[in-house]
Amino acid sequence: MTTHSLTCMTLEMRGPVAVVGLHRPDKRNAINDTMIDEIHAVFSAPPKEARVIVLHGHGPHFSAGLDLSEHRDRGAFEVMMHSQTWHRAFHQVQMGGLPVVTALKGAVVGGGLELATASHVRVAEPSTFYALPEGQRGIFVGGGGSVRIARIIGAGRMTEMMLTGHAYNAQEGQAMGLSHYLVGEGEALAKAMELAERIAGNAPLSVYAAINALPRIHDMAHAEGLYTESLMAALVQTSGEARDRMRDFLEKRAPKAGS
Q1: Which end of the chain is more exposed for a tag (fewer CB within 10 A), N or C?
Q2: Quick check: is 134 catalytic?
């Protein structure tokens, strides 16, 4: 098992699921440089037995975003380099090789929303609210939000959020695609675990292709996307595990989808 000594996060294994918690509840899990370093470390080298990661926040909030109390004057080049540390960390969340299911509650704001949208499946509770207050703070998104958030809700909606600072509630966020599941209060982590355990039963190569190929195909032109899809289909569907699973399905030994 990979060992991580963590200050701002928790990590525990529950079967094949690595449960990662943002652990600064007194700061509404605001993201500081130490947490960014720990996110990068954990998602770059998760426990070897992990098949899925569940990400959540300790306390009543997922994350209120950038810890402004630790913000300091930086030159333009320093700001650019600092932003890119967030990019590298959140890239590992999205493209690190394991699917990430995120349990959301309370504040999912600024950098917290950027982190959430780097994950693959998002479960929200009724207390969840989403906002991008960077405009009111005199700053700009720096954790990949202009790419990931805008692709989910559209550039126009993201522009409105940044200009007005308007917070959207859990129901509105569900309709916008910021969450995939909306559950009862206090139920997000349990639902995330249920989904993670289901995902853990999938073929690893199929999972890897889904989380790594699909976002890249999204960036491609039509013809290049179709060509890449055919290459991934050839790689995945000719694996030994794919043959075994197809045989089980055809011989009615496979579990039904969604069961």
Answers
A1: C
A2: yes
Separation between Cα atoms, residue 209 and residue 65, nearest integer Å = 30
The reply to whether 218 and 139 lie within a common domain is no
Domain that holds residue 237: 204-250
Question: Is the full-model pTM beyond 0.70?
Answer: yes
d(C-alpha 257, C-alpha 71), whole Å: 48
Domain count, the chain: 2
Lay out the sheet containing 17-22: strands in order across. 9-14, 17-22, 52-57, 100-104, 121-124, 181-182
CATH of the domain at 178: 3.90.226.10
* Distance separating alpha carbons of residues 195 and 121, to the nearest angstrom: 9
Residues 238 and 123 in one domain: no
Is 114 a known active-site residue? yes
Which residue in the list 38, 78, 134, 187 is annotated as catalytic?
A: 134
Q: Are residues 195 and 209 in the same domain?
A: no
From the list 38, 114, 172, 241, the catalytic residue is 114
Same domain flag for 161 and 217: no
Task: Give the DSSP H or E segment for 196.
Answer: helix 188-200
